Amino acid sequence: MNLKQMLLPWWGEPLEAPTHVSTRTAPHAPHDSPTDPSGFPVSDVSSDGMTPPPKFSLLRHSVTAEASAPAAALSVFRHPSAQHEMLLGQVLVGFELLRCKRRSIGMVVSPEGLTVRAPRWATWNDIEQALSDKSRWICAKLVDQRDKGQRQAAARITWEEGGSIPYLGEPLVMMWAPGQKGCTLVEQQHGLPGVAQRVLHVGVPAAEQVQWAAEPARAVTWMREHVLRWLQGQALAHYRERLAHFSPAMGVQMKALKLSSARTRWGSASVDGTIRLQWKLMHFSPAVIDYVVVHELAHLREMNHSPRFWQVVAEALPDYEVPLEQLRHAVIPE
Ligand SMILES: [Zn+2]
């Protein structure tokens, strides 16, 4: 096994078999709970022999300079409160060490980095060994957290004139429409390449705008609230149309559609025929929305995730794995 083989597999997320798949948000989703703060999930550590050899050095000095990273290190992850560093394979990890009353050495990877909690009696050798034993898990979690942070930063919406939101997978530029009511989507007929083709005119009364000079935050609130309300209306219309499109061929009939704001699920289906869909799916491409629509309609035939269920999905949407994979890494823009 060469170095590349040793390092890369921990970083990529393997495509799971469909039996593990649901429209629950992916592990990368923004509001997924972070690593169990109570301790260290040993079951997360794979025993497939991909763990790097325990060749590392513990640098027991205070962390001060970037220069402390060995030139050969591929990645550096440093907790803002790091007091110690350790080289795990080719990854330099700066971690926060907290001595506390507990029985074992625990590790938590948060968006900030690695925190190690150790009993007062634990020696440096104990800590060194614990980190070495879990190096594969630690590195995978650190990479996950960094990727998630980057996706969240990219998905941040600036609620101001000229800012844009992703709408059906494409940028939609927001502009004020003084004196108008509500929001109006305008398709640009002769857009330039690379320039947004669609503009959302956000209505605002002149009396409201007058107050923004003194209270600029009101403009942000106005735009955010009105655009999101508009998006909910669009979601209802779009989902209705897509449900009606797929239902006949799938041999199912939905009784009611409800919009959901659930943070942990993209959709759900009840035995009474009610389908709930997260309205912020409207930020994603039509293909991704179709996948969630088909997934929930398929539950009206099979209330489980059995092979039979996935067959129903595949019959309606043969290429469903492509949007499913996109959904796994999707981040809700905020
Ligand atoms: Zn499901």
From TrEMBL:
Domain of life per record: Bacteria
Short name of one Pfam family for this protein? YgjP-like
Q: Which CDD domains match?
A: M48_yhfN_like
Q: Where is this region: Disordered?
A: 21-49
Domain YgjP-like metallopeptidase, first and last residues per copy:
104-329
Name assigned to this protein: M48 family peptidase
Q: Which InterPro entries match?
A: UTP_pyrophosphatase-like, YgjP-like_metallopeptidase
